[in-house]
Amino acid sequence: MNGSGDLHLTAMCLRNLFRRKARTTLCIAGIALAVMSTVTITATTTSYTKAIREMNTLFTGDILVVSKSQIVLQALPISGGNLIETIEEEVKDIPEVKATVPLLFVFSTELRGTLEMVPINITVGTPPGNWTVLTGSTPLRAGGKWPSMDVVDEIVIGSCLADVYDIAVNSTIEIKGRNLTVRGVLDTRSAILGRIIMMPLKTAQEIYQYQMLVSMIVVKPEVGVDVKEVADRIEGKLNNPVERIKALTSDERNSLIDPLLDEVDMWNLGISIVFFVTSVTIVTLVAMINVSERRRDFATLDALGASFSSKVLIVLTEIGFIGLLGSIIGIFLGIIATVIVISFYTYIPIQMLFPDILTIASPLLLAKTVGCIVIASCVAGLIPAIAAAKTSIADILRAEY
Amino acid sequence: MEIKTVNMTKTYRLGSSMITAVDKVNFEVNEAKFIAMVGPSGSGKTTLLNLIGLNDSPTSGKIFIDDTDASLLSGSKRRKIRLLRMGFIFQTFNLLPTLNALENVELPMALAGNPQKEQREKAVRLLEDVGLGRRLFHRPKELSMGEMQRVAIARALANNPEIIIADEPTGELDSKTAEEIISLLFEINRKEKTAVIVATHDEKIVRLADVIYTIQDGELRLRG
User: Fold this and answer.
1) A270 touches chain B (CB under 8 A)
2) Which residues from B are below 8 Å from A296, CB to CB?
3) Domains and CATH numbers, chain B
4) How far apart are alpha carbons A148 and A271 in whole angstroms?
5) What is this structure's pTM?
6) Distance to chain A for B176, nearest Cα, Å
7) How many Cβ atoms sit within 10 Å of the Cβ of residue A363?
8) Residue A348's closest CA among A174, A202, A159, A95?
9) Does B46 touch chain A (CB under 8 A)?
10) Which of B101, B156, B79 lies closest to A1, judged by CA?
11) Which of B12, B88, B94 has its CB closest to that of A296?
């Protein structure tokens, strides 16, 4: 068929949809709801799993020495006993160890007296000069600098905290009755580094009453040595009835959390499939109703000489349009819902999340969702479309007489 | 265009019984004549017209289009014959409800691949010819029964058919409107030299037709 024929059929399709406003609206709303749910669940869980996976990149290749009772979520010791600070010296004595950095982590999970799922902030104490062991190449925002070696009350904070609480470089904040000067703000979009408060180890120990204690020791092995062997050697040397520790390599840390993350991904996939099947079912039902109601129209087109493909195209255009519109609306609503959910759990104001929207709900995920829904709609519409194309005027008129 | 049927029979199943809707019909049209087929409801008129119009296939016997056995034609060729050489008028008009009068008339031309400008000009002319020059952009539901049938006639003429097949074109109309539609069909037959085959109960059509057939229980007979 030529272009003008296509124009007639497209006009007919769109008017058909418009003529049945309530049904079309409900169908689009059903698809939009399914897409919104898929986008929200996928984007939210993905942003959480991404943040968790990101943690391990903080100490890639390093060995983390922690207390045996410590629960390590990727690179972060989230709960359990601490280590006595002096252990660092014993670790340093092992020949294959190049360097060590003690770190104290304090998670603040309370906001106005209520326990929160996501930490409000994470205080990290480390000896001055070792700041980048955790932050890597993350830069500081303009005007900022790392705390001086000999000053104890200077800190660096993450961009998320700075933005949420409106903290500027060189301003003073109070933590547990102690005034600290903010010397720098980490310029990062990382979920972890964004809410970090870095301060000298001694300061952190004093503020939080963890004298002589650290959460973990980051061990950098010599180049070329077997990391696993070094970890085993550390465990062999330091495990005794008084001090029980574990030395975790990157692989071991991954193996602790990967099955959990894989399960989350599987749940994600499962939920997406359920919503996907729901959309396809809605589309198929609506297509079947539309076709059965308009058998006479299709039969008339057949009598007039319309080709099989043009009749199929009419149904697919209608269904594809519903799928496209439904998925676009669903994505729009899904992005808004995702931002609201993340904001609710992280206490980051909604307006601060919007600039990062394409990081939270990736363009690839959005494009895949629209593509899948439109293709699935067309596939779901195929059977009704073929049924429509096979309708002959003889069958219709015979049924009438 | 010559259409010829040889012992054409159409049977179909209705529940547990077999119905013979058209029984060994031998029929021929090769001139621009006005042919009326008269018979009571259920006598097989509509089935016969569907067979002649290549909208259906006979159970046995043959249909020849210009000496070509229609059963040997592909679906696509049958479709092209319907599109380019035949025009159809139905009792209940069968206009597409979402298209306006102009678009309904343009549709066969669009399906034939005619240029859009040409479609528009011709559709306007045809609708003016049937007296609907002021109703071009009205949807079927905004038109009277008579106006809808006029649109259907204009649509049937869109691709300059050699034959028009009309199934009870006045069946849904009041007598005055029916008379106008009959006049219009005769005018087309005479002016355009288009053969017209009409299945009807209408005695006015029967009186004016060049050839009259009666059909009873699927059997077609020439009325003397």
Assistant:
1) no
2) 94
3) 31-60+71-222 (3.40.50.300)
4) 51
5) 0.70
6) 25
7) 9
8) A159
9) yes
10) B79
11) B94
CB B21 within 8 A of CB B198: no
How many residues belong to chain A?
401
Residues of A in contact with B50 (CB under 8 A): 393-394, 397
Chain A CB contacts of B83 below 8 Å: 304-305
H-type helices in chain B, by residue range? 45-52, 75-85, 101-112, 116-129, 145-157, 175-192, 203-208
Q: Which residues of chain A have pLDDT under 50?
A: none
Residues of chain B contacting residue A394, judged by C-beta atoms under 8 Å apart: 47, 50, 55-56
Tokens for B30, please give them.
């090769």
B108 touches chain A (CB under 8 A): yes
Distance CA A255, CA A235 (A): 18
- The reply to whether residue B167 touches residue A397, judged by beta carbons under 8 angstroms, is yes
**Nearest-by-CA chain A residue for B104:** A8
Q: Is the Cα torsion angle B89, B4, B36, B161 positive or negative in sign?
A: positive
| ipTM score | 0.90
Strand partners, A83: A214
From the list A8, A394, A397, which residue is nearest B106 (CB)? A8
Q: Are strands B211-216 and B34-38 parallel, antiparallel or unpaired?
A: parallel
Q: Confirm if A39 and A341 have CB atoms less than 8 A apart.
A: no
Angle at CA of residue B191, ends B185 and B192, nearest 5° = 85
| Residue pointed to by tokens 């972060």 | A76
CB A311 within 8 A of CB A389: yes
Domain spans, chain A:
3-53+258-400, 62-248
Q: Read off the pLDDT of residues A266-304 as tens digits, 9 standing for 90 and up.
A: 888 898 888 888 888 888 888 888 888 888 899 999 999
